[in-house]
Design goal:
With 224 residues, the chain is of the alpha+beta class. It is built from 7 helices and 9 strands.
Length: 224
């Protein structure tokens, strides 16, 4: 608790001198008069100045306003923020969901399950899910010190879609071999194009490449 002793010609002067030294207002101190001023003999000899003690009153912070430094400084968990974002989006669509984390060496999958029609979250050929995945990665990486790659899944759509594309690749490769004409697929995301390329990379008679610009980039299957 900080306190000082100040003096002045009058008690008021002494208090003001103390407030100036402490650089506070009068409501921030408790004042005790130590010595009253005295004029002395004939108003000159033995005159004494007023002397006061000022004790600084601590500022009381309301309990609800107290926040620990650790709570303020604690960083937000990027995955929790991503999950919170997904949950809020689903809630606006009237869906009550659960999210499960699946870790692998190369990526992290957030798998959505729950009641209701999750088809609204998936969209036509996964377009809504892809858009939501893009936003989820933005949210998570905003709070991460290192780059995160999150795959968003719902009702095992990614696995079902992978198998569909692999079967499609094999059928179209056979068509190209029979007709000797190349096939240009519909626009696909980079992830889906990669599935096509991987499925046919060791094919004996066809090869694949991509052409066009995003978001209309397509896979082409042609003879070697």
């Amino acid at each position: 608790m900080k306190k000082i002793v100040a003096s002045g010609k009058t008690i008021e002067d002494a208090v003001q001198n103390g407030l100036t030294e402490l650089q506070v207002s009068a409501d921030r101190v408790n004042v005790t008069v130590l010595e009253k001023p005295s004029k002395g003999l004939f108003g000159l000899i033995g005159a004494r100045a007023a002397k006061v003690e000022l004790v600084l009153v601590p500022v009381l912070v309301p309990e609800q306003e107290k926040v620990s430094v650790s709570a303020v400084a604690a960083p937000k968990d990027p995955l929790l923020e991503a999950e919170r974002f997904i949950t809020e989006v689903a809630r606006t669509m009237g869906l009550d969901i659960a999210i499960r984390r699946n870790d692998s060496k190369d990526e992290l999958t957030l798998a959505i399950s729950g009641g209701g029609d999750l088809g609204m979250l998936i969209g036509r050929r996964g377009q809504t899910l892809d858009a939501l995945q893009y936003l989820v990665n933005i949210v998570a990486n905003r709070y991460s010190n290192s780059h995160l790659r999150i795959v968003l899944d719902a009702e095992d759509f990614r696995e079902r879609r992978r198998k569909t594309l692999e079967d499609l690749s094999d059928r179209l490769a056979g068509h190209v071999v029979r007709t000797r004409k190349e096939v240009v697929l519909e626009p696909m995301s980079p992830h889906e194009r990669k599935i096509i390329h991987s499925q046919l990379q060791n094919h004996a008679k066809v090869k694949t490449f991509s052409k066009g610009d995003e978001p209309n980039r397509r896979v082409v299957i042609t003879l070697k």
